[in-house]
Write a structure and sequence with these properties.
The complex is a heterodimer of chains A (331) and B (366). Chain A is 66% helix and 0% strand. Chain B contains 12 helices and 12 strands. In chain B, the strands form 2 sheets. Chain B has an 8-stranded mixed beta sheet, sandwiched between helices. Chain B has a 4-stranded antiparallel beta sheet with strand order 2-1-4-5, with helices on one face. In chain B, α4 packs across α5, α4 runs parallel beside α6 and α6 packs parallel to α7. The longest helix of chain B is centred in the middle third of the chain and has 18 residues. Classes of the chains: A mainly alpha (331), B alpha/beta (366). At the A-B interface, α9 and α10 of A face α3, β6, α4 and α6 of B.
Chain lengths: 331, 366
C-alpha cells in the first residue's frame, strides 16, 4: 500500500530528481538513468555530443593535430598570405583551408582558436557559476535585506546588455593593470584574465536568480529544518544540504552559458578588445577575415565563423536536451 | 536569558515524574503585512497573525502529550517554537528547568541533543541526495557522540535495526523506501542523538492507515524501552487517543481544553472538543444525531472578540462574545477555558443527545 506513494519510475530507471549526474554517486547511476535513456533515443543529441567532443579533443590535443603552429611568429611567411583553400585553383595542399593575411594556416588557426575560445569559455562559466551560485544561495537562504540588495544588483546588471557590461569591466580591468605596472603581466595572460573576468562577471545573474529560486523552495523543506534542529551551522546546511539539491538547473544553464561565453569572447575579440592578434581566437580570426570579405578572400572569415557556429549550435543543443531530460514534467 | 529555577508542578506529579517541559504564556505572532511601500501607498494597517496566542501546558517525563486541533490552529507552530525553529514572541519554554525560549543557535547547542523532532512529510524530511547511513549519522557526527567511521557505521546499523529496518538499508537512498519506511528512517535519525524528548509533528498523517498503526506502535515501543517523552501533534483524534496520556485541544492559537486522554474522550467538556469528537466516524453511533461541525475557523488575523470559539458555539451568550475565558480546572483533572462550563450552562458528560441548536448559528456542514 505504502509503495503506491513512491515515485514509480519505469523498470531499469531511476527517478530523475535523484539521478542528476555530476554529484555524489550520480555517475554510478548515470548509465541506468532516464537521462542516459533519453540521450540514447535522441540522434540530434548524440550528434551534438559527438561534435562537442570533437572540439574538446581538438582543443586538448591541438598542438599534435594541427599541421602548423600558427602562434609561432618565426615560422610564418608573409608570402603564404591569403592562399585560398586547397581545392581551389590557387590552393596549396599544405594549407587545406587556405591562409589568412599573415600567412597562417587557417585549419591550424581554427584548431588553436577553438582552444582559446573553449578555455576562456570554460573559465568564465566557472567564474560566473561560483559567483552566481554563492550569491544565489546566500540570497535565498538568508533572505531579508541581503536578499533584496543582491537581487536589486542583479536586476540593475540585467537591465544592461551583457556585452556592454563585459566591455565596461574589460575597460576598467585593463585600465587598472595599466596604472599598476607592478603586476608584471604579459600581454597574452592579461588578455585572457581580462576576458575571463569580464565575461564571468557579466553573466552571474542567471545563476544567482535560478539558485535563489530553488533555494527558496529547498530552504523550507523538512530535511533542512531537521538539520536546523540538529544544530548544524547554517553555512554547512547551505553547502551540504541545499547546494546539491539546487545544482540540476545550474548544470543546464552552465551548458547554455558556455555557448554564450564563447560567443561573447568572439564578439569582444571581434571588437578588438579580446585576445591579441598574435594568438587569435575564433573571434579574432573572424574580425581579421572581415576586412577581406569584400575583396574576395571569403575563406579567412567563413571558416572560423562556421567553426564557431557549429560549436555554439552543438553546445546549445546539448543544453536544450539536458534541460528537457532533467525536467520530470517533460518525460 | 533568565535561568528559570526548576519549578515542580503539582499537577503532573504522581503517575509521571516532574515536569520535563513547561510552556508558559507562549506566544508567537507573525507579521503578514504587505511590503512597506504597498502598505504606505494602500494605507493598509500592519497585519499580525497570532499563530500561538498565550498557551500553557506541562509535559511530565515519560508522558505523551497530544495536541489536536483543526488546520491552522497553531499546533505546528508550537512544535517549531519548542525545537527552536522559531523564536517566541513572548512566554517561556522550560526544558528540565532551563528556559530555552529564544536562545541563539550556540546557546541552544547543549540542549539540542536532548530535544529532537519527527516531521510530518517523510518525502520531504530526508535529503534526497544523501544515503540513509549519512542521514542517520548526521546527528551522531554533529554532537560528536561516537568517534571513528567504523563505530559510527555500527551505531547507524544498530539504529536501523532498532526501528525495524535492515542495517544494509543504510547504503540506499531515501527514494528507494516506502513512506512508512522513510518515517522509520526519520525516527532513527531523531533517536541518533539519544534524545529524551521528541516533538512529533503529525508523524503519521502522510501515511496509509495500515502503516500509521505500525509507526504508532513503534513509537510506543520506543517510549517504553527508552523512556522517551513525546509531544505528539495531530489532527487525527483517533491517533491521538491511541498514543497520548494527556491531550490538549487547540483552537485559534489557544488551548481550550487539556485533559487526560480517557477523560477527554469519554467526557469532553469544551463545546469545541465535543464538536471535534462528534466528527469521528463510529459504527455504533450510526443513525444518531450528531453535533454538526458548524461554521469555519475564523481568520486568525482578525480573531473574534471574547471567546474565539463563540461564533461557532451553540452555547454562546453575551459574556462569551465580550470576555475571553480563562483556563480553569474542572473535575477529572481537566482544564477548560469556557464560560459555559464554568457557569454550568454546558452539560457535561458523554454526549448522547445532541445539544440544542439555537437559531441564528450559521451551520456549514463540513
Amino acid at each position: 500500500m505504502a509503495d503506491a506513494r513512491m515515485p514509480t519510475p519505469a523498470p531499469g530507471s531511476v527517478a530523475v530528481p535523484t539521478a542528476r549526474p555530476g554529484l555524489a554517486d550520480g555517475v554510478h547511476r548515470f548509465f541506468d538513468s532516464d537521462v542516459w535513456f533519453s540521450f540514447k533515443r535522441s540522434p540530434i543529441t548524440i550528434g551534438a555530443a559527438a561534435v562537442t567532443l570533437l572540439y574538446f579533443v581538438m582543443a586538448v590535443f591541438g598542438p599534435w593535430i594541427a599541421p602548423h603552429d600558427p602562434f609561432d611568429l618565426a615560422k610564418l611567411d608573409l608570402l603564404d598570405s591569403l592562399i585560398p583553400p586547397a581545392w581551389m585553383a590557387d590552393g596549396e595542399a599544405r594549407f587545406p583551408l587556405g591562409t589568412d593575411d599573415q600567412g597562417r594556416d587557417l585549419l591550424s588557426a581554427i584548431i588553436y582558436g577553438s582552444r582559446v575560445s573553449l578555455v576562456i569559455g570554460f573559465a568564465s562559466v566557472l567564474l560566473s557559476m561560483v559567483i552566481g551560485i554563492g550569491l544565489g544561495l546566500i540570497s535565498g537562504f538568508v533572505g531579508g535585506a541581503i536578499d533584496a540588495f543582491i537581487m536589486r544588483m542583479a536586476e540593475i546588471q540585467l537591465s544592461f546588455p551583457a556585452i556592454l557590461v563585459a566591455l565596461l569591466i574589460n575597460g576598467v580591468i585593463i585600465g587598472y593593470f595599466k596604472t599598476h605596472p607592478e603586476w608584471q603581466v604579459d600581454q597574452v595572460t592579461l588578455a585572457y584574465v581580462v576576458l575571463v573576468l569580464s565575461i564571468g562577471l557579466s553573466n552571474w545573474v542567471q545563476y544567482a536568480r535560478t539558485v535563489r529560486g530553488s533555494t527558496l523552495v529547498e530552504r523550507n523543506k523538512e530535511y533542512v529544518q531537521a538539520a536546523h534542529v540538529i544544530g548544524i551551522h547554517p553555512a554547512m546546511i547551505m553547502w551540504r544540504h541545499i547546494l546539491p539539491n539546487v545544482m540540476g538547473p545550474v548544470l543546464v544553464i552552465a551548458t547554455i552559458q558556455l555557448a554564450l561565453a564563447v560567443i561573447t569572447e568572439a564578439t569582444l575579440s571581434f571588437l578588438g578588445v579580446g585576445v591579441p592578434p598574435t594568438e587569435p581566437s575564433l573571434g579574432t580570426l573572424i574580425r581579421v577575415g572581415n576586412d577581406y570579405l569584400f575583396s574576395g578572400e571569403w575563406w579567412v572569415t567563413i571558416f572560423p565563423g562556421a567553426a564557431l557556429a557549429i560549436l555554439v549550435l552543438a553546445v546549445n543543443l546539448l543544453g536544450d536536451w539536458l534541460r528537457d531530460a532533467l525536467n520530470p514534467k517533460l518525460r | 536569558m533568565s535561568e528559570a529555577a526548576v519549578i515542580k508542578s503539582p499537577s503532573t506529579e504522581g503517575r509521571f515524574g516532574h515536569a520535563m517541559l513547561k510552556v508558559e504564556g507562549l506566544r508567537r505572532y507573525f507579521d503578514v503585512s504587505a511590503p512597506w511601500l504597498n502598505r504606505v501607498i494602500g494605507r493598509q494597517p500592519r497585519q499580525i497573525l497570532k499563530a500561538v496566542d498565550g498557551i500553557d501546558f506541562e509535559i511530565a517525563r515519560g508522558e505523551t502529550f497530544g495536541l489536536v486541533g483543526e488546520s491552522g490552529c497553531g499546533k505546528s507552530t508550537v512544535a517549531r517554537l519548542i525545537v527552536g525553529l522559531h523564536g517566541p514572541t513572548d512566554g517561556s519554554i522550560t526544558l528540565e528547568g532551563r528556559n530555552i525560549a529564544g536562545l541563539t543557535r550556540r546557546q541552544m547547542a547543549p540542549m539540542r541533543r536532548r530535544l529532537q523532532m519527527i516531521f510530518q512529510d517523510p518525502y520531504a524530511s530526508l535529503n534526497p541526495r544523501w544515503r540513509v547511513r549519512d542521514i542517520i549519522a548526521e546527528p551522531i557526527r554533529a554532537f560528536d557522540l561516537v568517534s571513528g567511521d567504523q563505530a559510527i557505521a555500527t551505531r547507524v546499523g544498530e539504529l536501523l535495526t532498532f526501528v525495524g529496518l535492515n542495517p544494509l538499508d543504510g547504503e540506499k537512498f531515501p527514494h528507494e523506501f516506502s513512506g512508512g519506511q522513510r518515517q522509520r528512517i526519520s525516527i532513527a535519525r531523531a533517536l541518533a542523538s539519544e534524545p529524551e524528548f521528541l516533538v512529533c509533528d503529525e508523524p503519521t498523517s502522510a501515511l496509509d492507515v495500515s502503516v500509521q498503526a505500525q509507526i504508532l506502535n513503534l513509537m510506543k515501543d520506543l517510549q517504553r524501552e527508552l523512556g522517551l517523552t513525546y509531544l505528539f501533534i495531530s489532527h487525527n483524534l483517533a491517533v491521538v487517543y491511541h498514543i497520548s496520556d494527556r491531550v490538549g485541544v487547540m483552537y485559534l492559537g489557544k488551548l481550550v481544553e487539556v485533559a487526560p486522554s480517557k477523560t477527554l474522550f469519554t467526557t469532553p467538556r469544551h463545546p469545541y472538543t465535543r464538536m471535534l469528537l462528534d466528527t469521528i466516524p463510529d459504527l455504533d453511533m450510526t443513525g444518531r444525531e450528531r453535533m454538526p461541525v458548524a461554521g469555519e475557523v475564523p481568520n486568525p488575523i482578525t480573531p473574534p472578540p471574547g471567546c474565539s470559539f463563540h461564533p461557532r458555539c451553540p452555547f454562546a451568550n453575551d459574556r462569551c462574545r465580550v470576555e475571553a475565558p480563562k483556563a480553569l480546572p474542572v473535575s477529572g483533572g481537566a482544564t477548560v477555558a469556557c464560560h459555559g462550563v464554568e457557569e454550568g450552562r454546558v452539560p457535561s458528560g458523554p454526549i448522547l443527545a445532541p445539544p440544542p441548536k439555537p437559531d441564528g448559528v450559521a451551520s456549514v456542514h463540513g
